[in-house]
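Narrative summary of target 7.
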Amino acid sequence: MIRAYGLTKRYGDKTVVDDLGFEVLPGTVTGFLGPNGAGKSTTMRMLLGLDAPTRGRATIGGRAYATHPAPLHEVGALLEARSVHPGRSAYHHLMALALTHSIPQRRVDAVLELAGIHEVARRRVKGFSLGMGQRLGIAAALLGDPATVILDEPVNGLDPEGVLWIRNLLKSLAAEGRTVLVSSHLMSEMALTAEHLIIIGRGKLLADTTVERFVRESGTGSVKVVTPEAGRLTELLVGPGVGFSSDATGVLDVRGTDAEHIGRTAAAHGIPLFELTPQTASLEQAFMDLTRDSVEYIATPNTPATHQNHQAHQAHQSEGAAA
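Modeled conformation, tokenized:
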């Protein structure tokens, strides 16, 4: 089990992680999510003793990472795939790690095979692609057959086959009873891989819940209603927190109430319904709604006004050139 107790990290007057507390349980893939600058990488570094917290503490398996006598057997971690000497081969990199823990050569061969890089194991790492580097980093994390696995953005640079591989790998590790904590910006992948979520924003805990509950309670779901009496049904459903939108005649998108209430209301007043479909929010939309106020950098959308300003700027430049 991973535990964080009031973790806080400050750099000067900037607080990167702010009184963060959570638990990561074995047997489950836990997604660690947050916008850029939320403090995810700093938190992971504090879990592994690479950064000292300003306040608070973290334990893995009931003790601080640095106090484990054989840490590779307890915790496998990937924080930076490129932290490998470029002149070494993948095989010799893993062998160097293995010798620190008396891990046999057959285990090195096994993780190279597991990561799918056994055929390039004797090549120098400097020639590896980003995806191959990620696979080597994951192989190193699994070298000691650890009970806890911590991976920061493990799918970066992987092709679709590699993404499917890491998804199945994480699930199988959790199914074996291991503790798995993984960060990612790919919400679609987290929706398929993680069962539990820890979400932070600006260093603070925003959510600690299951994926299913988080999406269900996000409040971003709606109900699609198709009826020839949309106006009348709208009048009957009006109430606190209920909202409506429509992009076609007879088609309503209703928020703030559920399909059962809409169906019963329509039946009670003899209103025919041609469709009544709950529209479940995606993990991505629920995440965006939760972290909207925690985003560090917000891009300006290319609105029609922006396009017009661009055209005006181009016309002004053309006039200047003609003059």
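The chain has a mean pLDDT of 90.
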